[in-house]
Amino acid sequence: MVQTISSVGLPQEQPKVWHTLETAAAIAYLETDLEKGLSSAEAKRRLTDFGANELTAKKGKPWWLKFLLQFNQPLLIILLCAGLVKAISGSFVNAGVIWGVTTTNAIIGFIQESKAESAIAALVKAITTETTVIRDGKKLRVQSRELVPGDLVMLASGDKVPADLRLVQVRNLQVDESALTGESVAVEKDTQILKADTPLAERKNMAYAGGFVTFGQAMGIVVATGNATETGRISQLMERHTDLSTPLTRKFDKFSQSWLRVVLGLATLTFVVGLSYRDLQDALEAAVTLTVSAIPEGLPAVVTVTLAIGVSRMARRHAIIRKLPAVETLGSATVVCSDKTGTLTENQMTVQAIYAGGHQYEVTGVGYAPEGEILVNDQPISLNSEKGLQECLIAGLLCNDSHLEKKNGKWVVVGDPTEGALITSAKKAGFSQSALVNEMPRLDGIPFESEFQYMATLHETPRGKIIYVKGSAEAILNRCTLLLSTDGQPHPIDCVETFRQTTIEREVNIMARQGLRVLALAKKSVSDKQITVDHADIDTGLIFLGLQGMIDPPRESATKAVQACQEAGIQVKMITGDHAVTAQAIARRMGINKNGSVLAFTGAELAQMDKQELAHVAEEGVVFARVAPEQKLRLVEALQSKGEIVAMTGDGVNDAPALKQADIGIAMGGAGTEVAKEAADMLLTDDNFASIEAAVEEGRAVYKNLLKAIYFILPVNGGESMTILLSTLLSRELPILSLQVLWLNMLNSITMTVPLAFEPKAKNVMKQPPRHPNEPLLSSSRMKRILAISLFNWIVIFGVFEYIEYTTGNLNLARTMAINSLIAGRIFYLLSISQLIPNLIAKMDGTIEENVDIPAIGFGIVGAIILQIIFAHVPLINEVFETAPLNFQQWLFCLAVGSPMIIWAAVVNKIDPPN
């Protein structure tokens, strides 16, 4: 028994089982009146107690704090400290340059970070509207934000549901709750009491905030407002989501921590050794130079540019990236959890099978466009000889409250999707809805009601007055005594029950197993005097005309994309609010499976599972149907607990928490709600699963190019560090100074590394399994590569410096030639890891036909050469960076010293192939 509580003590926490309460119990609990509603004074008091019916957003971090947090990286902190040491020692120019580099990296990070979260604001838009309420016994129009628990709300066709309502009066009410539940068809509502464990999508006595009334009228009591609504609960789930880093950022963090320890150790050793035979100033210079040389300052900028180029490539393939690291995350995805309706399917109900006159027919074509044929035994029909089929199609066309329109070159249904499918199937046979309506005008009708499971219309026809009926197979067959044969003649059904069991119901079951939604059609001739139709008129004596089976069919391109993903070792799972049988049928059609099986689980089953069991089911299952928002979230978390990198698609409000929790959330740019778009990392402009496969392909290519960038940049840092350390240990002059290191690591590295981001993807990129989520950024083979190239760079820098200093005695000239020799070697190394030369050779011998992208690498090399000419010959640069001009013979010397890199890199490429 529900306890009655005084207004003042009306509980803030309302029960979550309103669908289990009798109407009277709900009214008593909320202390309202079914006739008069709340009084204005009471509504005002409750508004003060419960707050406005709107969602409250969590405050984001201020912009300045976000900017400061960009410096919260180990390597940048070391650089800041190095700059501080230089400033204290009086080298303000050096300190300014070092700080400038760190600030530049912070600005790049700040710009690439996504804007402040505004998903909650989008949720507010989703439920803000005007609504009709009864207060003091009068109907009023008020803002939805003014609603309070206990208000009586009136709903009519076209209204947005303003709050969570327990329905108390219903007349043919249908509510589109797809944004909340994922259910692709409007839900028929009633007032019957339900069990406590009834899934959200099946609570027919409730209407939830954000839903849209497509048909009928109703009255309901407000049971929850604002954050207490189901939509509000989703916003809370979004605020509580785990703030996940991406695989790329996790690997960079791990790399940074390891590199940090190495740098600090070497810098300390350099300083201590330096103090033994140098003054404090020189020892500090050596330690700072080693620190600056060991840190790849240009790497964050190169990573950002590489990801940005990936963004551009993905945009050309209908995928818009909102958050840069998502580019690489896509490439490492091991599981794609996809919504069904509109992503894997067309989101257009289509009749695919008809049974009429004892014959089975196949209907071709997809969607509402009247393009396609009706076939029998794979041959087009002659409609004139198929009288039974004619009548079945006419019934579907006339017993119909919807119509088709062409908008922006695309056919759409105005009304119910299932009725749109019936119109389209008739149009494919050559019928015109407007012509038939004029020829056989409607006189009266019975709208569809869930209680009766049928709709009926009375028409004036040239053959007299006829009632056409459509509805569920069970409701129609029980009222039929005759069957229309293929010649258009009615035949008595001698044993209705036996016949129904052996023939028609068998056809119904065949269609149902294919995931088709089945509608039965019938007719009845009546007296010419009849002008109205009532339920009693169709209780018996109907002539069975046929069955039409329809489905929201899979996209052809999505089916191919699913196959490509599975070949690439990526699991595809369907998470939907639709029925399990329908979802399982679609999965089978598309080839979505795990080891050949299509295991399906419902939300009710998932609710009974603990974390361990859910993790196992999430891994083995393929289809998850009738799931609630928090269950989508739990499924994503369960997969992540198994070490999976999860990409999650969605378009509704109900998808938002899971989109945020997933390693990459993918929202529909066209059909998606604003809530889903704001929660996602990526938007699909064509709402097509095929674009996800394309984006994964680009993501994998981006990762390959990132690796190339890393093992191009790091050997320079390695060579510089080894040079400085050895010079300190041998008590020699430093072959390279801290400012010269910054020139190399920032300007030169970025100029030569960015072109690698334009490298084309390998042909077999989608034939390889996903890389293991725990695979380190630097594998053993990559470490061998970096050490080998670092060794060559060290020999070049140290050797050239020592030789030139010994022969000329000019320190500035020795350092300038050492650096330019290093750059010459880098140019040859860049060509060795690029696809430019192999592709040019393949182009010449006809192995490939595509144009080879020469400009990117070419511009990078030319840019590097120009920078080094400036480095050596511009007086201001000579003064600031302590360099000296070179003559022609000295330039040739640098080129000659760098050329052995060709042979050295070829050997290294055998150990660790770059492509």
Report on this model:
It is elongated and about 120 Å long. 50% of the residues are buried. It is built from 34 helices and 28 strands. It is an alpha+beta fold.
Q: How would you sum up this structure in a few lines?
A:
The chain is an alpha+beta fold and 915 residues long. It is built from 34 helices and 28 strands.
Helix percentage: 40-55%
User: What Rg, in angstroms, do the CA atoms define?
Assistant: 36 Å
Contiguous low-pLDDT stretches (5 residues minimum) are: 1-9, 114-124, 496-500
| DSSP E strands, number | 28
The class by helix and strand makeup works out as alpha+beta
**Rounded average pLDDT:** 83
Compute the number of helices.
34
Principal-axes shape call: elongated
Question: What profile does the largest beta sheet have?
Answer: 11 strands, mixed
Q: What's the end-to-end separation, in Å?
A: 72 Å
Strand content: 15-25%
Strand-helix topology:
Layout: H1 23-30, H2 40-50, H3 63-69, H4 74-88, H5 92-112, H6 119-127, E1 130-135, E2 138-143, E3 152-156, E4 164-176, H7 178-181, E5 187-188, E6 206-207, E7 212-224, H8 230-240, H9 247-275, H10 280-294, H11 299-315, E8 319-321, H12 326-331, E9 335-338, H13 340-344, E10 350-356, E11 359-363, E12 374-376, E13 379-380, H14 387-398, E14 403-407, E15 410-414, H15 417-428, H16 433-439, E16 442-449, E17 454-461, E18 464-471, H17 473-477, E19 480-484, E20 490-492, H18 496-513, E21 517-526, E22 542-551, H19 556-567, E23 571-575, H20 580-590, E24 600-602, H21 603-607, H22 611-620, E25 623-625, H23 629-641, E26 646-650, H24 656-661, E27 664-668, H25 674-679, E28 682-684, H26 689-729, H27 738-753, H28 780-808, H29 811-833, H30 836-844, H31 854-873, H32 875-881, H33 888-898, H34 901-911
Parallel strand pairs: 9-23, 9-26, 19-22, 23-25, 24-25, 26-27, 27-28
Antiparallel strand pairs: 1-2, 1-3, 3-7, 4-5, 4-6, 4-7, 8-28, 10-11, 10-22, 11-12, 12-13, 14-15, 16-17, 17-18, 18-21, 19-20, 21-22
Helix pairs in contact: 4-5, 4-10, 5-27, 9-10, 9-26, 10-26, 10-27, 11-26, 14-15, 19-26, 22-23, 26-27, 26-28, 27-29, 27-31, 28-29, 28-34, 29-31, 29-33, 29-34, 31-32
